[in-house]
Every structure is written in C-alpha cells, then in structure tokens.
Write a structure and sequence with these properties.
CATH superfamily: NAD(P)-binding Rossmann-like Domain
Helix content: 25-40%
Distance between the termini: 34 Å
Family: Belongs to the short-chain dehydrogenases/reductases (SDR) family.
Largest sheet: 8 strands, mixed
CATH architecture: 3-Layer(aba) Sandwich
GO molecular function, one term: oxidoreductase activity, acting on the CH-OH group of donors, NAD or NADP as acceptor
Strand order of the largest sheet: 3-2-1-4-5-6-7-8
Number of strands: 8
CATH topology: Rossmann fold
Protein name: Oxidoreductase, short chain dehydrogenase/reductase
Shape: globular
Organism: Candidatus Yanofskybacteria bacterium GW2011_GWD1_39_16
C-alpha cells in the first residue's frame, strides 16, 4: 500500500485530498493545527502539527519516520492567507506567511527527504498569485503573493537537486476554491467556483500520473512560473 503525507488535512483542500487518496486505496498521514480531522478510516493517521514551529516540524518528521519508513508522496498543503484586505504589505503578516507558507514547507520536506525513493512525488500547493508571469490585477494580498512565489522557487530548486535520484517535485495552483481561504478574498459579485473535491482530483492525478519534474500545474496543464 502506498503512503502519502498531507499537511493541513483538517478542512478544505487538504481534507478533500485526504479523502480522495483514501478512496483510491492509499494510506494517508494527515496533519492538523488545532482542529481534529473528521476522518475515521483504518488507513488514516492524524498528527498535530504547527508549520510555523521548528520544534513541531522536527517532532512530526520523527513521528512520520517511525510510522512510514518509505513515503510515496508528500502534499504540502498547509498554508495561510492573512492579508486579504491589505493594499500595502504588512511586515508582521508577511513574516508569518513566510514562516508557514515557505520556511515550514522547506523544513518539513528536507526532514523527510530520506524517506522518498525513485518516483516518489512531492507536490507543493501553490497559487496563481505566485506566478511571476501573471499580471498583477489588484493591490491586495501582496504578502501572500510573495510567499507563494518563493514556494515556487523552492519547487524549481528542489526538482533540480533531486532529478538524478528519480524523485518528482511539482507545484500546483488549485484554482479559486470554495474554502475559508477562498472566501476570504471573495466579493459580492465574485466568488470561488471550484469545489475542494475538484482540487483534490487534480492533486491526485498530478501525484499518480505525471512523470515530469520541476513544473507548475493548473487544471491538468503546465503553466509558466
């Protein structure tokens, strides 16, 4: 049985992705921050995890290593958007988003690298906001954009590092999804149109069918960085 680690699995895209992998016969290790994960399945294990805390990251990495000596996939889904209404970058909020959306992802991934083998797939949940070739169309979420652009560079760099070992690394933009985060940037006239389940399907397909490393994906297609 294949094993996947999914961070931020208590709700939204993470929860839907955990359910999708379980339905497809995978063993799932899911992390949560403060809200337990509403899944009861013999192939599911939940672990409390704070992606902004280095001690928590080291502890969770150790737990995962003891639970699964080999990982087939890692879905770095946990992330935050806390500047939805800010037109000017707030240094304190930016620092927090970099800690969670970038540094925490890097820290956990590097801790777990020894568990991956040939054809293992690391997927970083990114955003169209992190796409440098995408025109900036409003003044908001500058800090979130910065953090997601940085995460894309980690994907790009890690894919190069691991290429000779046969490991796959990808970024994916799930689209504007009906989650707490998605609704935080909605308006009266514009609201998210994708369901978490649709995003989960895209993530599962990326993990299980794509054999190219070092690309940014959206709706099943490669997009520019």
């Amino acid at each position: 049985m294949k094993t996947v680690v999914i961070t931020g699995a208590s709700r939204g895209i993470g929860l839907a992705t955990a359910k999708k992998f379980l339905a497809e016969g995978w063993r799932v290790i899911g992390t949560y921050l403060d809200k337990s994960i509403p899944i009861e399945d013999s192939n599911f294990i939940s672990i409390q995890y704070d992606q902004s805390n280095s001690e928590s990251i080291a502890r969770v990495a150790s737990q995962i290593s003891s639970l699964a000596p080999h990982l087939d996939a890692l879905v770095n889904n946990a992330g935050i958007l806390i500047d939805a209404n800010d037109k000017v970058p707030d240094p304190a909020k930016l620092r927090k988003m970099l800690e969670v959306n970038v540094i925490g992802v890097v820290d956990l991934t590097e801790h777990l690298l020894s568990l991956f083998g040939n054809d293992s797939h690391i997927v970083n949940i990114d955003s169209g906001y992190g796409q440098l070739c995408r025109p900036v169309d409003d003044e908001f979420v500058a800090g979130y954009r910065i953090s997601k652009a940085a995460l894309n560079m980690y994907t790009h760099h890690l894919a190069f590092r691991l290429k000779s070992q046969g490991m796959l690394v990808s970024s994916i933009a799930p689209g504007w999804v009906q989650t707490d985060m998605g609704y935080s940037i909605a308006s009266e006239t514009q609201k998210p149109g994708r369901t978490p389940e649709q995003a989960a399907d895209d993530i599962f397909q990326l993990v299980t069918t794509v054999k190219e490393s070092g690309h940014f994906w959206e709706y099943g297609k490669k997009i520019g960085w």
